[in-house]
Amino acid sequence: MTDTITAEDAHLWLEEVDGADAMAWVRDRNAETVAALTGEARFAELRDEIRIVLDADDRIPMIAWHGERVYNLWKDAAHPRGLWRRTTLADYRTGEPTWDTVLDLDALAATEDENWVWQGATYLRRGPLAGDHRALLSLSRGGADAAVVREFDLDRKEFVADGFFLPEAKSDVSWISIDEIFVGTDTGPGSMTSSGYPRQVRRWRRGTPFAEAPVVFEGTDDDVSVRASSDPSAAGERAVIRRSLDFFHAERHLLAGGVLTKLDVPDDAGVDLHRDWLLIRVRTDWAVGGTTHPAGSLLIVNLDAFLAGSRDLTTLFTPDPHTSLSYSDWTHDGLILVLLADVQSRLELLTFVDGSWERTVLGGLELGQTDVWNTNADADEQYLLLSSGFTLPPTLRHGVLGGDPPTTLKQGPAYFPTDGITTRQFFATSADGTQVPYFVVGDPSAGPGPTLLSGYGGFEVSRVPSYSAIIGRGWLARGGTYVVANIRGGGEYGPQWHRSALRENRPRAYEDFAAVATDLVERGITTRAQLGIEGGSNGGLLMGVMLTRYPELFGAIVCAVPLLDMRRYHLLLAGASWTAEYGDPDVADDWAYLRLFSPYQNIRQGVPYPPTLITTSTRDDRVHPGHARKMVARLREHGHDVSYYENIEGGHGGAADNAQLAFKWALAFEFLWRTLATA
């Protein structure tokens, strides 16, 4: 099979990420694009305006609880890699909090001569040093998913000498106690899955060689990953080991008292343990205990009773045709449900009183999206909510479950004018008659004009209203209209909305997006020549399909960090983990449908394709940059108008700092304005 693929693919050499020839090709394409798009004053204006809002001092410093304090990672012009800092919640409430800097990432990068990019902190949450005393920091070189893990002392504000340390890898870590951690990492052959994630979980004790750490669980090469998560809410030592069979199916094993017990739940269900409770989110209909619970339901049961054989499950949420559960989040004793009703959020607060769950619908929220930003589940009932909309700047609220309604902690400023700009929701009719919602943001009286349509449509990810200063300044404030399509493959209407575009049904997502594009023109919001589209990752695949299957609908396309070669995607980096979403091209029946929409294999000569900008990152170790490189090479080979830019840093996000992010977006906007404004 490999020889056949190689013979058919003249651009296979571009998959050599750091190969000399491949990088020379990248530098040539970058130079062409930079020369073509950055020479006019508008590009500099776009870049500088975006950079201003990314570095702005008056944006909300987003926080998360850890121990007695709240933590924040702050990036600005003086600290492009970030200041990791903390304060108390009481001080945070004031207009000018006093921040205590825990770690200066820029100073660390300079001292160690490493291009460190923050990937997060795993806090010790059990025992006398729980809270804000110890953490395991993940630091990436250049923004890749692979990271170095180092133990950090939060009291001394320094790395622990001879502390826990893991070299660069796609690792997974979880504290057991101050002296033990669960670890999954790359230790050589047999330790990682074919998807490039840990296959083993080891229990590593401080002061012992990692090679001697016992393996507590091992999956197979064909699994996506294996990971262990300690549960600090339990009275004793307890952990859940998740063996991901594919992207949507997993076995869960409870590890307690040294004994592994497989949880008897559907392998496609979502599972969450908290204190005495087992929470189950059903993704397909589940018949159990004489009752069939429909897909999208949320169920709860006492964990000990469940392990003893009880299937007396309490239903906390049942979906309807318009309403789905987006997610749930625990406080110490309660639960917050975030629902989507025709892609508008609604929050319900649940408390356990006298043997039953009491429910309060949280009112007083703006139209748009409200999310649970953080809870203080280790200690109490406090929670933080973040609300925003397409034209509504973010608001951070603080509340206590069972107490008074939440109050405003911080209000974000408006970074672009919204006079005359409204948000409207419409529904397009897809090829099979399905009604597909989409949001239109702009001046409804302006008439047809430059319009940017965005979509994703995969992995049960929902696209919801949110405030983007980048879109606002770069597009809306300049007279453009912005559209978000809620196509199938996403999670806007629950698991069924996602499943309806899986594998051989994938074209439904593409038909949905094409239907929205057609509907925009029919409503007079834009014209075909003035309609641009953009998407990244799975959304980049969407863009590639639009280019090769529906080129007549669009005036310009921006495609970022994309999957495009569906013949080889499963062989590149994390691609093997996505076969449950797309199918396996090595299976003849799967390739029979994949080949019909795989963009790389469907480029045609003589077909008028719209101008296209494709971007990616050399350091993206999730979606291989070879997808973008090869697509551009083949488009050029067939004489199509395509521009390319590959950021050397940035990982799957495409940028390692605000300067790179502003540059990348300015390129996209300049390309779109040049192409669409003159149409």
Shape: globular
Number of helices: 14
Distance between the termini: 45 Å
Radius of gyration: 25 Å
Strand order of the largest sheet: 32-33-35-34-36-37-38-39
Fraction of residues in H or I helices: 10-25%
* Main sheet attributes: strand count, strand direction, barrel closure: 8 strands, mixed
Oligomeric organization of the protein chains: single chain
**Average of pLDDT:** 95
What proportion of the residues form beta strands (DSSP E)? Answer: 25-35%
Low-pLDDT windows of residues: 1-7
**Main structural class:** alpha+beta
How many individual β-strands? 39
Domain Peptidase S9A N-terminal: 7-227
Keywords: Hydrolase, Protease, Serine protease
Organism: Dactylosporangium cerinum
Protein name: Prolyl oligopeptidase family protein
What does this structure look like?
- The longest helix is centred in the C-terminal third of the chain and has 19 residues, at 658-676.
- It is built from 14 helices and 39 strands.
- It starts with a helix and ends with a helix.
- A hairpin with a 4-residue loop joins strand 7 (147-153) and strand 8.
- The model is unreliable at 1-7 (pLDDT under 50).
- Helices cover 21% and strands 34% of the residues.
- The radius of gyration is 25 Å and the shape is globular.
- By secondary structure, the chain is α+β, with helices and mostly antiparallel strands.
- The chain has an 8-stranded mixed beta sheet, with helices on both faces.
